[in-house]
Specification:
About 35% of the residues lie in helices and about 10% in strands. The chain is α+β, with helices and mostly antiparallel strands. The termini are far apart.
Length: about 200
């Protein structure tokens, strides 16, 4: 059959039945494989997130100690290189029986003009401290400065005596950070037991 002149040739379309319709999508096997790959990648990455979180917390802790060291250094320069004398220490360098809050508050108030905020006194690994730091009358600290006598330059003469000690073993392996007169830091077994509450 030839088409008439002036009309388009008639094309025959294949008959499409519902069973032969083209369906786009994923098969169950493909979905299971994708889910398995994602689960494997997640299982490899989740421990890495924990590692990086600990490293970040260590960095913040060290920054806090450096800020306290800088505040103490500046205060020493302003006060003839005499270490701040805590009223909570007796003759012979033995602690008086007093509220831990009182000494933490005294140190905070003493160094506040030199920059450290209340958050500076808390290690990010000290979860208890951050949860309970909302009470303005309760002074929490993860760090405690060392007590030196009131002679000039005494804090610099004891090169192996840390200026600030981290209380409690908040870091991996129960370690705590310490900062020394020259500004170097070390991580040692927790020297101070649990932090002040």
């Amino acid at each position: 059959m030839t088409p008439r002149s002036g009309t388009a040739p008639h094309t025959m379309l294949p008959h499409s039945s519902p069973s032969r319709r083209c369906v786009s999508g994923y098969t169950l096997v493909e979905l299971v494989v994708v889910v398995a790959i994602i689960a494997t990648l997640a299982s490899l990455l989740i421990p890495a997130f924990g590692y990086f979180k600990r490293r970040a917390q260590d960095a913040v802790c060290m920054t806090n100690l450096r800020n306290l060291h800088t505040a103490l250094s500046t205060r020493l320069h302003d006060h003839a290189f005499i270490w701040p004398q805590s009223p909570y220490m007796k003759e012979g360098d033995l602690p008086q029986s007093t509220s831990p809050d009182a000494e933490a508050k005294w140190w905070y108030e003493t160094l506040k003009p030199y920059g450290p905020s209340r958050e500076t006194w808390l290690c990010p690994c000290d979860r208890h401290g951050f949860v309970n730091n909302n009470d303005p009358d309760h002074y929490l600290t993860s760090y405690m400065p060392t007590h030196f006598d009131d002679g000039p330059n005494v804090a610099y003469e004891w090169a192996n005596q840390p200026w600030v000690i981290e209380l409690g073993g908040f870091h991996e392996g129960g370690k705590g950070n310490l900062i020394f007169p020259d500004g170097h830091m070390e991580k040692r077994d927790s020297p101070g037991g649990d932090s002040t509450r």
